[in-house]
Design a protein that fits this description.
42% helix; 3-stranded mixed β-sheet; globular; single chain; mainly alpha
């Protein structure tokens, strides 16, 4: 922000809030969902500073090296659409003053069932991701209808 505030936490909170609705655009292929939870791809809506099993990792860095890594997008994602959605969700997080949930500082690839039950999973298949996007006012406002229809078709 122009006032010197660190808006990264609110921006990440906005992305976490909208990630389920955005997933079909970040992971457009049926096969995109097979890698969630393995192959170094996250399965749950979570964040951490510490490890790469989380959906968002905010490495311990300062200044120009401070960043957040969204770890779910598939290489088949359209980068322009993916960045537009991440920016739009992040701006909503800033505008609404969203707060990050507590960090998930555990390895979710090795966590027990009880620990995992605290986290909402990403859509488990393309059909669930399409359903979340279709029901989303956020997606209707951020993605042109003709583009959305193409993604909803498969």
């Amino acid at each position: 922000a122009g006032d010197g505030r660190d808006c990264l936490p609110q921006m990440v909170a906005g992305v976490l809030d909208k990630i389920e609705e955005m997933t079909v655009f970040l992971d457009p292929l049926k096969g995109s969902y097979a890698r969630f939870g393995g192959h170094k791809a996250p399965r749950y809506i979570s964040w951490s500073h510490e490890n790469r099993s989380q959906l968002v990792r905010i490495p311990a860095a300062v200044g120009e090296h401070r960043r957040a890594e969204l770890r779910s997008p598939d290489p088949a994602a359209n980068p322009y659409l993916a960045f537009a959605l991440m920016i739009q969700a992040g701006l909503q997080g800033i505008e609404q003053g969203m707060e990050l949930p507590p960090a998930a500082d555990l390895n979710l690839y090795q966590a027990d069932r009880e620990s995992l039950s605290r986290f909402q999973p990403l859509p488990q298949d393309r059909e669930a991701a399409v359903a979340a996007a279709r029901a989303s006012g956020f997606i209707r406002s951020a993605v042109p209808e003709a583009v959305a229809k193409r993604y909803f078709e498969g």
